[in-house]
Design goal:
9 strands; 24% helix; Aminopeptidase; single chain; alpha+beta
Length: 187
């Protein structure tokens, strides 16, 4: 019997032991404190951070605006977290969400955990009827998930090249994006 060769690039790269040991699940009440700690540690040494990320997550949770909140767990230990929350777009387009913050403990970074959290979160947003997702971030990193600059979406005070969107369908809104007020949390 002759095997048909697979097309180049069709095979998934081998998963590391860490990545294959990761469980992605929705947050529970018992995760709240550890999510704050993981987020604090993940952003602690980042110069671009104002170190408010744990406060943002808590404020989103308190406002009932954590649409999707997932943790990454290895051997029962939470090592990462991602949050998705509703955004407002000035054209009135609804069902768009903001991605962030996404946090992975430093010793587990660069192993696919953040990517797994983001992919699962995007999948859950689509399943909930979401129409798209927007974020502020590094285009080189987020393009792997399908995010790209959408010139018709702007965010006040943010250079356009860092405002990235991922429509889940054909409809792309046009206007100014406003993240939930929880993003102004400082404590």
């Amino acid at each position: 019997m002759t095997e048909t060769p697979e097309p180049a690039g069709s095979r998934e790269p081998p998963r590391s032991d860490v990545e294959s040991a990761v469980t992605i699940r929705g947050e529970t009440a018992s995760d709240v404190q550890v999510i704050g700690e993981v987020t604090r540690i993940a952003f602690e040494k980042l110069a671009v951070s104002q170190h408010t990320e744990p406060f943002i997550i808590n404020a989103l949770r308190a406002a009932g605006a954590l649409t999707v909140s997932l943790v990454a767990e290895i051997d029962g230990q939470v090592v990462g977290h991602v949050a998705f929350s509703p955004v407002t777009i000035s054209d009135g387009n609804a069902h768009w969400y903001g991605l962030g913050p996404v946090s992975v403990l430093p010793q587990y970074q660069k192993r696919g955990i953040g990517s797994a959290l983001i992919r699962e979160g995007l999948s859950r947003l689509k399943a909930r009827g979401g129409e798209g997702c927007v974020l502020v971030g590094d285009p080189a990193y987020y393009q792997r998930f399908g995010f790209h600059n959408l010139p018709q979406l702007t965010l006040e005070g943010v250079p356009q090249e860092y405002v990235l969107g991922l429509p889940f369908g054909e409809d792309i809104p046009r206007g100014t994006v406003v993240f939930h007020r929880a993003f102004s949390a400082r404590s």
